[in-house]
Design brief:
This protein is α+β, with helices and mostly antiparallel strands and 90 residues long. Helix content is 32%, strand content 21%. The chain has 2 helices and 4 strands; from the N terminus they run αββαββ. The strands form 2 sheets. Strands 1-2 form a two-stranded antiparallel ribbon. Helix 1 crosses helix 2. It is globular. The two termini are 24 Å apart.
Length: 90
């Protein structure tokens, strides 16, 4: 039997984004159809400063909850979008 990834990090990420005024927040369980990861957490933000603030809060809250650090972070230079790759969660 294969262990399923823990969904609490995706929920924590969504709650952190919500706490920093993220909008259109969606948590998708993509594991059954995508081998890349188990969860996508999608969030919109109104401006580049808010994009950075949300990304920093997600990273901080997942770590504070005992979760992993991102394997890779992309998009912080331009801030049109940011991708936090946690392996089982993006």
């Amino acid at each position: 039997m294969v262990d399923q990834p823990d969904p609490r990090w995706a929920v924590t990420a969504a709650q952190a984004a919500d706490a920093k005024s993220g909008t259109d927040i969606v948590v998708l369980d993509v594991g059954p159809v995508l081998s890349l990861c188990q969860y996508f957490v999608l969030v919109s933000a109104g401006n580049k400063r808010l994009v950075r603030t949300i990304a920093e809060e997600v990273e901080a809250q997942v770590a504070a909850a005992g979760g992993p650090k991102p394997i890779r972070i992309e998009g912080l230079q331009d801030l049109g979008w940011v991708l936090l790759d946690y392996g089982d969660m993006v």
